[in-house]
UniProtKB/TrEMBL annotation:
UniProt cross-references to Pfam families, sorted A to Z: FMN_red (PF03358)
Signal peptide positions on this chain: none
GO molecular function, one term: FMN binding
SUPFAM superfamilies: Flavoproteins (SSF52218)
One of the record's GO cellular component terms: cytosol
UniProt xrefs under InterPro entries: Flavoprotein-like_sf, FMN_Rdtase-like_dom, NAD(P)H-dep_reductase
Record domain NADPH-dependent FMN reductase-like: where: 3-140
Protein name: NAD(P)H-dependent oxidoreductase
Length: 177
């Protein structure tokens, strides 16, 4: 049994990013349990003064989910050429820990352009020492034109990219025990 924590960088419900995570979860084999973290907007603003024994409950719960996961999947939009503040805030709560160090990670940026946001996501996750490869990171540009109003992926090329991504993520998770 492999536990995967899926984090959408979008707080919109439903979002293209959540739809992409759902699609990826459907590509993973039996024995993979995907937990969709949906409390990104409930995490308090990062404050190093609160990063102590009396950690806010929402942050402690978030960290516990990361700690028990065999892998992390992040799919995020790009806002103003950057990561959404809520996702960056969540990642900042991990800076003083080693929770993401060597954690098997799949990173997807799905947005209109996404290039700058993707660069920042890769830099932050590399800084946090997350374990990912060139095959377990993906930039999907023009995502809104690739998903229909019902949230179904309709673009065949993107479907192929996500299939390759999911296979690479599975290999990464399984290569690490």
């Amino acid at each position: 049994m492999r536990k995967i924590l899926a984090i959408s960088g979008s707080t919109r419900h439903p979002s293209s990013n959540s739809n992409i995570l759902q699609y990826i979860s459907g590509l993973l084999p039996a024995g993979y349990i995907v937990d969709f973290f949906e409390d990104l907007d409930n995490l308090p603003h990062f404050n190093p003064d609160l990063d102590n024994a009396e950690l806010p409950v929402a942050v402690a719960d978030f960290r516990a989910k990361i700690a028990t996961a065999d892998g992390i999947l992040i799919c995020t939009p790009e806002y103003v050429f950057s990561l959404p503040g809520s996702l960056k805030n969540a990642l900042e709560w991990c800076v003083s820990t080693t929770l993401l160090s060597h954690k098997n990670t799949g990173l997807v940026t799905a947005s209109a352009s996404g290039e700058k946001g993707h660069e920042q996501l890769l830099l932050i996750m590399k800084t946090l020492e997350a374990r990912f490869t060139s095959e377990t990171q993906l930039l999907i540009q023009g995502v809104r034109g690739k998903i229909n109003p019902e949230g179904i992926l309709t673009d065949a090329s993107t479907a192929q990219q996500l299939k390759a991504f999911a296979m690479a993520f599975q290999e990464l998770v399984e290569s690490n025990g």
